[in-house]
Amino acid sequence: MKRPGISVKVIAFPFTRCRKAPLQQHPPQITELIERLAKLPGLGRKSATRLSLYILKRPEEEVKALAASLVAVKEEIRFCSVCHDYTDRDPCPRCSDPKRDRSTVCVVETPADLMTIESSGLFRGLYHVLGGVLNPLSGIGPDELNIQSLLDRVGPGTEGDPVAEVLLATGSSPEGESTCSYLSDHLKAKGVTVTKLARGLPAGMDLEFVDGGTLKEALEHRRKIPWPGPPGDPGRYPPPLHPSGLWNLKRAPAPGAIGSP
Ligand SMILES: [Zn+2]
Predict the structure, then answer these.
(1) Is residue 255 part of a domain?
(2) What residues make up the domain containing 244?
(3) CA-based R_g, the chain, Å
């Protein structure tokens, strides 16, 4: 006799087969593009997928121009034989520019560092790209960097305008500092002035957020605050204290007042 109740039908889902088979979410062309983009620094698989799908939506001419640019930088860009920055002609326009101060060479780790200093518009000398920093643990010694060509650029016996100052603009990492010391010792032996970028407090940062190392550098490289004007100029003396307690910077001291010459 058949017992009353609810009959349950077991439905077999095809999950077992799916788990074993590789996931085929996209056509192989898209998958390959995602995998290639995911190898780029700063791009994970999710970002690479988003970028690939964005590229697919763009007009064909735009995507072809992007592909042509990728090929062009690889085929036409090389290193300048003087400063070792990327260039399409050798020597690069910066090394060939007669308007630049040829007596000062700024040494940087990478072409990206060069671009950072150059885009500030504050330095008009020449550059030298090391191509990294000394790191014995990773097998990077002086021969792996553009150090010999730097030493060849300075000192007696070099061709062209003599270099009077070498500014070392390596990073503040331990490797950057040790590279700076190594270069400093070898450059001083060449008889040139060796300087390095000042370290200290970042602009706009409160003291309570500054780490100990940065504060130590800032204290060691503290500067004397100059008088605002030359000797004899009334403006070089402190102006009278404003009743509110603030310095009235616009008012010069009255003749005969305390603090006037
Ligand atoms: Zn160059």
Answers:
(1) no
(2) 198-249
(3) 31
Count CA within 13 A, CB hemisphere, residue 59. 3
What pLDDT digit, counting tens, does each position of 55-90 carry? 999 999 999 999 999 999 999 999 999 999 999 999
Do 137 and 192 reside in the same domain of the chain? yes
What spacing in Å lies between the alpha carbon of 174 and ligand 1's midpoint?
A: 27
126 conformational bin, left if phi > 0, alpha if psi -120 to 50, beta if neither: beta
How far is the centre of ligand 1, averaged over its atoms, from the C-alpha of 177 (Å)? Answer: 24
180 CA distance to ligand 1 middle (Å): 21
Phi, psi dihedrals of residue 165, rounded to the nearest 5°: -135, 135
Separation CA 34–CA 54 (nearest Å)? 11
Residues 6+ apart with CB under 8 A from 112: none
Q: How confident is the model over 133-161, as pLDDT tens digits?
A: 999 999 999 999 999 999 999 876 666 67
Number of domains in the chain: 3
Residue 162 CA from chain centroid, whole number: 28
72 Cα–ligand 1 center, Å: 20
Please give the distance, rounded to the nearest whole angstrom, from the Cα atom of residue 232 to the centre of ligand 1: 48
- Which residues surround the ion ligand 1 when the cut-off is CB under 5 Å? 80, 82-83, 91-92, 95
Q: Which of 256, 238, 258 is nearest to 247 (CA)?
A: 238
